[in-house]
Amino acid sequence: MSKSATTPTTTTPSILAARAAAYVGHTHIRLRGEQTGTIGVCNARTATASISLRLGTVLMTFWSAAASQGVLEAVAAARNGLTAVPDTIAAAADPYGTLAIAVDWTTRPSYAVVPQTRTTEDRRHTLRWVDVHMGPLTVQILDRAAHRSLTDLLREVHRTAIAVFLDGAEHAADPDADDYTPGHTDNR
User: Are 143 and 158 in contact (CB under 8 A)?
Assistant: First the structure.
């Protein structure tokens, strides 16, 4: 049998990853202040449907309703850890520029929400933020304004995912609702 006879003819994120020369094992994004983004849809109601969320220099592509629901669930879970985090903080210029990354969410991520605290070197200030660890990506939420706006954007992605993806009806429960049970999809 020739090699070409065993090569898949479709291009999916898992096939692309299998052929990649390298991959990034983990990265961080830091969010502060009001977040704005744009949402795009390709091939709605097909097996190759995708939703993209462009959030500044971060591009997130969702390949299933389960993935969008899981990412929203993880970010919404950070709400309880934000009590000591300031409402807004001033944006500081980054001397190294802004990191541009692309993340493909193919399925629901596992996650952990970890409140963080650090005292400045001069011991005059205590910094507080929340880390949301989701597999290869950690989102550092530096203020409540970033959390509110990111949650709003992800809620819109999730609403879109319900209509766009073939698994939408199975993942219609809103992870930000008070009666939602984490990890379950039947809380409509």
Answer: no
Q: Using CA atoms, how far apart are residues 102 and 72, in angstroms rounded to an integer?
A: 17
Structure tokens at 10: 């479709």
pTM value > 0.90: no
15-31 per-position pLDDT tens digit: 555 666 777 788 999 99
* CA nearest to 82, candidates 36, 114, 112, 55: 114
**pLDDT tens figures, 81-90:** 999 999 998 8
Domain ranges in the chain? 26-171
Is the CB of residue 39 less than 8 Å from the CB of residue 55? no
| Helix or strand run (H / E) with residue 146 | helix 144-164
| Of residues 99, 86, 79, the one with CA closest to residue 29 | 99
Q: How long a stretch of residues is the chain?
A: 188
